[in-house]
Amino acid sequence: xxxYRIARDISVINDQIAVPGIGFLPVNAFVLHAAExxxxxxxxxxxxxxxxxxxxxxVDPADVRWIWLTHPDRDHTxxxxxxxxxxxxxxVVTTYLGVGIMSTERPLPMxxxxxxxxxxxxxxxxxxxxxxxxxxxxxxATVGLYDDGSRTCFSSDxxxxxxxxxxxxxxxxxxxxxxxxxxAGQLLWAxxxxxxxHIVDPDAFLATLHPLRxxxxxxxxxxxxxxxxxxxxxFLDTVATAPSVDPFIxxxxxxxxxxxxxxxxxxxxxxxxxxA
Length: 276
Description:
- By secondary structure, the protein is α/β, with parallel strands linked by helices.
- It is built from eight helices and 13 strands.
- The chain has helices spanning 51-56, 80-86, 96-102, 166-169, 179-193, 202-215, 232-240, 253-261, and strands at residues 2-7, 10-19, 23-32, 38-40, 66-68, 91-94, 113-115, 121-123, 128-132, 144-147, 152-156, 219-222, 228-229.
- Strands 1-2-3-4-5-6-7 form a seven-stranded mixed β-sheet. Strands 8-9-10-11-12-13 form a six-stranded mixed β-sheet, with no helix packed on it.
- Strand 12 and strand 13 form a beta hairpin.
- The longest helix has 15 residues, at 179-193.
């Protein structure tokens, strides 16, 4: 994990995970350095990740006032309970459904919730954050946010893309990714993460892109993509074609067995490293 500033008032906490057969998926959380500091998502739920340590290089956890969970999937909630302990004044921004989903594993403290639906807003002292439903999502509790202070769209999974190398997954800008790789990655991720896009009415889907065209953010921050400056129109044009691309079909058992065979130990007839 590494943390860096992408704008005067926004820090990125970047992580990644290798997905066999797909690539290296960025997994970002963010800090909005507002008058009332906001943490947006809390990283991977893996035992070797220390989200609080990474967060501490951007903001004192005790100063955090809001924790906005764009949705309750495990790659967005890894540090949530540690952060709640370290940030006693913070409240969790989520939805009724998000609370319910998380409560199947460990309940969120009800007295520290702020339930916010798409279209509703939150005042964080020096700016207003407005929730919206991204055009693409994999969880029905998903709510992205638009910060009117920095003209930034935090899009959750939407616009994400697996990267061909770990270096690109850690890049500071989506512009560092070759354009063809970026487009192919975004369309692949659209079909992996939002397979329903192939069965919806195309015109109805295109209508969901209009609010973001009106928003026209200067900066798009996706959980699963390097930061993107000035690429909103380009991204929306790419996503608009998602219903027409081939659906993703994952590896089956035969492919898994072939993969595992490649990891098998050498046969007994082969010499060992010790020469025994």
